[in-house]
Each structure stands twice: as structure tokens, then as C-alpha cells.
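Re: the 259-residue chain
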Amino acid sequence: MLSKIGSFILQRFSSVPYVIGYIGKVFSSSLFFMKRERAATRILIMQLLFTFIEALSIVSILAAGLGSALYVVGHNFLLSFGQGSLIYDLPVVVVSRELGPLLVAFVVTARSATAIATELGSMVTSHQIESYISVGVDPIDYLVSPRFLGVTLSVFLLSIYFSLFGLLFPAIMAKIVNNVPPSIYFRDLFQKVSVMTVVTVTIKSIVFGMVIAVTSTYYGFNVERASTEIPVAGIQAVSKSFFGIIIADVCIMVCSFLL
């Protein structure tokens, strides 16, 4: 019985050293990305175009709808308890600090994780990765680093836009529903924004972007020879990214409350 448990644990964690080494290689390669050739920079720009620019409209609409609904519903709910002043805490805590980075990460995962894993998996099955290695080009430097930086930067920028739209549109609803001038709304709102909130949002967005990029590229390279493995790699990239994002969110949330 013990031998079976031991063999199961060894089988499950046998790839941990490889994963740690892969993450270390991605980080070290990304630090020296500016020294890469123009072709790698072009991949970074294309990744930003797909992950950030093309997802901006979706994120903006989602943030505007969430912020507006939260204000309308939350204002009536809080007034019933005589705590109407807390309506300015809701957008900051819920939209900007908690749900903002999380929803952005989910949107990026759904759009980009599958695309990256599928693209890299196709390159593996078509022997393009072997071609890069044969001419002395490191696939991590040329293929992974620009995607890692592009996805991480995209999640960070999208989180900023999510916060802006999520806090801006409730001001419109406040004017329509309660006739609150925007100047008074933003004055009371910015009093609720703390340095810890800004730091938490920044850390979450950067960590979530790293999780998505590392996971999707890892499972893309995990494809071996058969083209039927490519869809499986895409599914694993999405599911594992979701799992990693939730774990990272819980850890960051606990640390922010303990500090």
C-alpha cells in the first residue's frame, strides 16, 4: 500500500524540477529581452495587439456594466441598512481590487491561453522548434519571452482600463439615479482609494499575467508528435491557468489582509 502511494506521489511530482527550471529560464530570458533581434520584438507587438488591443472593448463593456449594476443595486441595498456612504467602497473594493484583475485574467485566459498553446503545439508537431534549435536559436528566447512579456503587460494594462471604466460609469449612474454631481462622486470615491489597493491591483495583474503566459507556453511545448495532442494542450492550458489564477488570487488576498 505504501509503495503504491509512494509511486503515485513520485509520478505526480516527477515533472516539478523541470517546471521550476522552465519558469527560471523564462524569467531569465525575459530580463534580457531588449537585446533580442527585431523579429522577437515583432512577436511581442503582435502579442500585445491580440491580447491587449483586441480585448480592450470586451473588458471595457464588462467593467462598465459591472460598475453600473453594482452602484444601482448596492446603493438601494446599503440605504436599507442606513449605510449609504459605503457605496463608494464597493467600486473600489469589488471592481478595482477584487473582481477587476480576476475577470481580466479570465478573459485573457479564454482568448490567449488556447491560442498560444495551440500555436506552439503546432510548431512542435511541424518540427519548427527543432529547426530553431538546429540553427542555434533558443525557442525560449525567441518564442516564449515575447509572449510572456506581452501577456503580462496586457493583463496589467487591461486591469487599469477595467478599473477606469468600472469607476467612471457609476458616476453616470449616480447622476441619473440620485442626481449626484460627478465632482462630488469622484471626490468621495478617491477618498476610499488607498495605496494598498493600488499595490494589490498591480501585483495581482502582473502575477496573473505571468501565470497565464507560463502555463500556456509550457503546455504548448508539452505536445510531442501527434497533432491530436494540440487540442488537449489548449484545454490543459486554460484549465491549469484558471487553477493557478485562483490559487494566486487567494494567496495575494490573504497576504494583503495580513499586512
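Residues 139-178 form the longest helix (40 residues).
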